[in-house]
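For consistency, the fold was encoded as C-alpha cells, as this record shows:
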Amino acid sequence: MVTGAGPAVRPPTGRSGAAMPKPSDTLWDISKAEVEKKKLEGNGDGMEVWEKSLLFMGNKNGGKTTIILRCLDREEIPKPTLALEYAFGRRAKGHNQPKDIAHFWELGGGTSLLDLIRVPITSENIRSFAIILVLDLSKPNELWPTMDSLLQVTRNHVDKIITELGKTNSKVANEIKQRMWNNIPKDHPDHELIDPFPIPLVIIGSKYDIFQEFDPEVRKIMCKTLRFISHYYGASLVFTSKTEAKARGLINQLAFGFDRSKFISVDQNKPLFIPAGLDSLNQIGPPPASDSDIGKLHAHTPLDLWKKIYVKTFPPKELEQYKKNAAKSWKEMEFES
C-alpha cells in the first residue's frame, strides 16, 4: 500500500544568490531532494530501498492525474497539469523495514511539450523506468496521432540513452535490450513479428464509461487496434474509468514490484485487461477492413497497415477540418464559375 506522496513540482522561477540552473536540472534536483529528505525521515537504518520511476503521458485532460491520485491513495480534486509534474509514493515492506519508493512524473499538454520527456528519463534511472500512456477512449480521432507522437519521441530518446550507455557500459545496455523481451515467451508465435518498446510500457484506455456507449462497430475497431498496438510494442493494455480501478494493479506492479496479474479480459463488451505477452495476432484477428481496401492502402509494415486503416476510419481533427475547408472551397469555386 502506498503510504505517502510528495507535492507536485513545477519549474521554479529562480533562486536568490545563485545562478539559474537548467530547467531539467531544476526539476530533477528538487524532486530528488524531496525524496532523499523523506528517505532520511523514515529510513534511518540505510537499508536498500526498491526505487522505480514512472512517466505518465497521453491526451490532454485524459485522466492522467486522476489515475496517479488513485494510485497514491490521495482524495483530491485533480488540477490541470501545466508542464511536467512530480509526486512520489512510498510503500512499507514490513515492521521496521525501509519503504519502497516510486517516482511519479506526469507530462501535461498532450503532445505540445514533447521536449520535456527527456527531463525525467536519464541514463542514471533508465533501468528502473516505465512509461504509462493514457489514451482518452472518448476521443477516437485523437488516439492514433497522440499515441504515435508520444511513443516515437520517447523511444527515440530512450534509444539514444541506450546507445550512449553501450559506449561506456555495454553490459547494462545489453541487459536493457534483453529485458524488453522478458514478458514475451520464447515460444510465442509472434516473436518475429513484434517490436517491443525498449522499457516497460502500459497503455491505459481512459474514460471507458463514455466509450461503452459508442456504437458496437466503433468499439470493435478501437479495441482491435489498441490490442494490436499494445501487443506489437510488448505492452500491457487496460481500460479504466472513474469506477474501474484495474489499472492501479498494473501500475503498482511496475512501481512496487507487486505480483504480476494472471487475469485477462479480451471481450470488447467489457473493459479490456491484457498483461504484456498474453495476447497474439491470431487472437486479435485481421485489421478491420476488406481485402480490397487493404490492397489499396499500400502499407509497408503491419503497423503501417493498422495505422492507415484506423486513420481512414477516424481521421485526425486537423485532417478532417482540412477536408471540410477544401470541399467548401471547391463548392465556392463551382458557384463562382
